[in-house]
Structures are given as structure tokens and as C-alpha cells.
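Saturday, quiet lab. Running sequence design on the C-alpha cells for the scaffold JK sent over.
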């Protein structure tokens, strides 16, 4: 233990982040102004790495074979836990940073910088893990499957939202592209010689819509037509649709996927088209570590930030941190940045607003304070790890039934 109290150290953390506030805001605005899509976040990753490297963190990039993934490590040389702060920085097509990943990545980097600067007696290892492609591709899934989080005792990140919440669920999800191959023909003079791939797409939507009354309330299935043909007077020889399927658990998602795939296969059979299916990685449901969440909430309240309960029903999306939460203790709390909802133009504006930047600084402070607690409060660390161990045993027992 260092020769100082937690509250003194936390005051130092707060002062450190306040002192860095101008450069942190510039960093978040830089990433916001240069949005990059999944697996192409070259400038965003570099912008986050630069201050960490300058502060003496050891940088590994690429990480797990992903060019825009990275790990920044500060090893104190003293016995203690390994705490990971997760950075996201990919943007959405057309909307840019309408999920606020510019704030997420900057908050995690800021927390690590402040902790190293303010707490020279820190025990254990502090990591910032840059995780690309949360929106499309599942960078954390790839890294988790490669064992990147196996030696991590706790993982944290903070997501911007319309209200501050500490424990909120996340649905399992998977995407799939349905590619239908038909036969071109003149749509007026010889339609009988064609096979409409577009009809197969349309009937896939019809079939899935017919399934909705038989899905449980947690299930969500949404899709778009990504290719519907090239001209109205040609029977489409190729058409394509992409769907995202969600359910409360991975096990429930398997059943949803089987039904959706059967609908696409039936649509192909009806039209005479040939079907190919390309399936993405599966995002697991979120396992929130309650002990860690309580510790995080205490620090938010120390900062004078009110914490609200999550919605009783609905209002839940998906994130690849769910896969991280299957291999180590993890939390994914939320910080208020305004009366806005993700994946909208209004949210993109809020992610660069004064309120958004202030929320980012609050998130950074709470992350750093909680990481400090994990490194120097043996009771909290034991509670976090014991809870995860109990969950893992129960989860394994459930899978074996």
C-alpha cells in the first residue's frame, strides 16, 4: 500500500485529468472530425497511441493480427492485478461518431495517463487495449478468441448515453449476408426465362416478418437490401440482403438464426434462386460484474454524479464487450452526454459538444479511480474475482446440461 489514503490519491487523479482537459478534448475532437470505419481506424488508433507512448507506456501494434488494434502497457513492477481499460474508436457509415467512440477511446486513454501520473505507488499492471471494429466486425471477439484478455483481472470502458447507468445488459447478436443468384432475362418480353434473385430477397423479408409473432420478447431481427438489381427492365440475376439477429443469450440466438436461415432457404427454393450465406462473428451477451459495478458507482457518486437504473424492458443493444465479459470480470457503464440516443445525427453532434466532452472527462475520472481501487483494495479485487469465478462455474455447468 502507498503511504497515502485513497481519497488523497483520487483527488490527485481528478486534478491530473483536469490538468490534461484541454489536450484530451482536442484528442476527442480530432478523432470525431476524422471518422474511420471498422478495421480502418488508422489515424484514430495513432492519435490514441501517441500520448500513451509519450508517457512511457509500452506499445504493441498490431495486436492479434489486427493492424488498428493495440495494447499500451504500464507495468509498475509491484505485485498487483492487471487492469484493462478498453478503447473504441470506429465510426458508423454516413453518421460518423454517432455512437461516441471518440469519447470512449479518449476516456480510457485519459484514465490510464492520469493514473500513471498521479499514482507513482501504483501496484500491478495497467493496460489500454485498443479494440477496433465494435460496430462492424467484432474486434474484441477476435482479440478474446486469441487470449488477449485471459491474463486480465478486470476490464472496463464507459459508453456515452442519454443517462448515467452502471449496470445495463447487452443482447447476443450475429449478422448474416444472404446472397441470392438467379438468372437474368428481359423483364417484359421474356420474364419466364429469368429467375428473380430480388424476389428471393423480398420473400426472405416476408418470411422473417411472419416469424416475428413466434419470437420471444428479447429477440430483434432487422435487415436491409444491399443489392436489388441493376435495372428495372432486367430480371435481377443477383440480389443481396443483410440481417442482424439478436437475442438475450447466445443459446437463444442459435434458435433465432436457424429460423431466419430457414426463411431465406425457403425463399430461395420458391424463386428457384441459389443461396449463399455469409455469417459474421457472434457477439455474446453481457455478463456485468456486480462487485466491480458497485465500485464504479461509488466513484461516480464521489464525483457528485447521479446514477440511474437501466430500463426495465427494452432499450438494449449489443456490444462485443460481451465476449470479453465471458473470459474476465468486466463492466460497461454509461455516462450522460445529453438528451440524445445513439446512432442518430443528434448523437454525433453531442459527441463533439461541450456536454459530451465534459461527460468524457467524468468517465475518465471514474475509470481511473476504480482502477486505483482494484490495485489497492484487496477486498474489492477479491470480490470481483470471486464473483467472476462463481459465474464461470455456473455458466460451464449450464452448458454441459
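Result came back. Writing it out in full:
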Amino acid at each position: 500500500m502507498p503511504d497515502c489514503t485513497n481519497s488523497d490519491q483520487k483527488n490527485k487523479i481528478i486534478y491530473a485529468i483536469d490538468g490534461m482537459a484541454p489536450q484530451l478534448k482536442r484528442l476527442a475532437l480530432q478523432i470525431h472530425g476524422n471518422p474511420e470505419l471498422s478495421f480502418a481506424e488508422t489515424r484514430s488508433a495513432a492519435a490514441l497511441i501517441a500520448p500513451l507512448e509519450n508517457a512511457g507506456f509500452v506499445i504493441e501494434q498490431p495486436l492479434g493480427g489486427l493492424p488498428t488494434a493495440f495494447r499500451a502497457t504500464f507495468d509498475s513492477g509491484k505485485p498487483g492485478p492487471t487492469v484493462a481499460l478498453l478503447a473504441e474508436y470506429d465510426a458508423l457509415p454516413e453518421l460518423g461518431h454517432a455512437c461516441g467512440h471518440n469519447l470512449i477511446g479518449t476516456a480510457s486513454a485519459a484514465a490510464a495517463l492520469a493514473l500513471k501520473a498521479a499514482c507513482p505507488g501504483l501496484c500491478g499492471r495497467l493496460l489500454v487495449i485498443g479494440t477496433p471494429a465494435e460496430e462492424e466486425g467484432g474486434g474484441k471477439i477476435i482479440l478474446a478468441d486469441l487470449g488477449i484478455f485471459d491474463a486480465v483481472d478486470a476490464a472496463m470502458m464507459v459508453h456515452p448515453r442519454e443517462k448515467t447507468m452502471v449496470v445495463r445488459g447487452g443482447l447476443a447478436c450475429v449478422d448474416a449476408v444472404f446472397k441470392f443468384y438467379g438468372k437474368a432475362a428481359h423483364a417484359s418480353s421474356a420474364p419466364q426465362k429469368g429467375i428473380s434473385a430480388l424476389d428471393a430477397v423480398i420473400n426472405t423479408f416476408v418470411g422473417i416478418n411472419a416469424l416475428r409473432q413466434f419470437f420471444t420478447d428479447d429477440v430483434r431481427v432487422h435487415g436491409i437490401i444491399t443489392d436489388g438489381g441493376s435495372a428495372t427492365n432486367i430480371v435481377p440475376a443477383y440480389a443481396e440482403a443483410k440481417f442482424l439477429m439478436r437475442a438475450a443469450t447466445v443459446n437463444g440466438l442459435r434458435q433465432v438464426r436457424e429460423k431466419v436461415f430457414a426463411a431465406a432457404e425457403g425463399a430461395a427454393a420458391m424463386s428457384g434462386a441459389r443461396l449463399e450465406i455469409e455469417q459474421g462473428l457472434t457477439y455474446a451477451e453481457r455478463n456485468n460484474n456486480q462487485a466491480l459495478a458497485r465500485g464504479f458507482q461509488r466513484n461516480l457518486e464521489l464525483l457528485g454524479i447521479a446514477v440511474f437504473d437501466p430500463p426495465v424492458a427494452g432499450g438494449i443493444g449489443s456490444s462485443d464487450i460481451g465476449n470479453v465479459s465471458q473470459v474476465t470480470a468486466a463492466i460497461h457503464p454509461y455516462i450522460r452526454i445529453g438528451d440524445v440516443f445513439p446512432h442518430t445525427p443528434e448523437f454525433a453532434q453531442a459527441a463533439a459538444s461541450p456536454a459530451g466532452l465534459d461527460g468524457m472527462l467524468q468517465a475518465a475520472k471514474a475509470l481511473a479511480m476504480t482502477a486505483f481501487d482494484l490495485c489497492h483494495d484487496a477486498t474489492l479485487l477479491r470480490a470481483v474475482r470471486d464473483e467472476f469465478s462463481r459465474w464461470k462455474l455456473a455458466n460451464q455447468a449450464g452448458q454441459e446440461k
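Notes for JK: Residues 6-169+286-400 form a domain with the Aminopeptidase fold (CATH 3.40.630.10). The chain has two domains: 6-169+286-400, 172-279. Ask whether to fix the surface positions before the next round.
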